[in-house]
Amino acid sequence: MSLSTRNAFIQRKTRETEIEIHLLVDGVGKADIDTGIGFLDHMLTLFASHGLFDLHVRARGDLHVDEHHTAEDVFICLGKALDQALGERSGLVRTAHAYTPMDESLALVAVDLGGRPYCVFECDFATPAVGNLGTDLIFHLFESLAIHGRLNLHARVLYGRNDHHKIEALFKALARALDAATQIDPRRQGVPSTKGTLTI
Predict the structure, then answer these.
(1) What's the confidence (pLDDT) of residue 194?
(2) Which of 31, 82, 91, 186 has the lowest tally of Cβ within 10 angstroms?
């Protein structure tokens, strides 16, 4: 799979939400995001920028209920888009990590694109929401990405005081770890596994 073809277009329509995502893995950080959830738009924009992904997101959901369904379905689709864009995952670096500071906060994210979905998330929040996004949803968003993107994802805020800063550090670290893990290693032939396959 050439770098120019590592992209995906995902649509999802339910009684609760309607989502459209286009992801180009080897982009330049262009973001065109509209989910109806301002803080989530901010996080996805910096995710694209720091990961150098080109990302288009349109989401409409039952925000009159709350933000849960919309945010969750966006990350289900983002995970599916990443999985589809990476194809057989041949030649991938596969594993990477990133430490990212945001003022007083420091986050670590480590990823393994080996096809085994799992998420470990360690962060305590002091407030119930940042903007119009509940802080209790952040773990669920990372978990949804891991499950539907078929990746092992460990995220931890080592320290921090401000919840906005903690979450921003997490998303920047996630972006940078994924950018590194999705790179192609020219020395590697085939999938990056001693098994010869990345399927479970």
Answers:
(1) 53
(2) 186
Chain segment 147-169, per-residue pLDDT in tens: 999 999 999 999 999 999 999 99
Q: Domains plus CATH for the chain? A: 3-181 (3.30.230.40)
Contact 171, 46 (CB under 8 A): yes
Distance in angstroms (rounded) separating the CA atoms of residues 144 and 186:
30
Given a contact cutoff of 8 angstroms between Cβ atoms, the answer to whether 179 and 53 are in contact is: yes
> CA–CA separation, 42 vs 33, rounded Å?
8
pTM exceeding 0.85: yes
Q: Which amino acid is at 198?
A: L
Q: Do 149 and 78 touch, CB atoms closer than 8 A?
A: yes
Rounded distance, CA 72 to CA 122, Å? 19
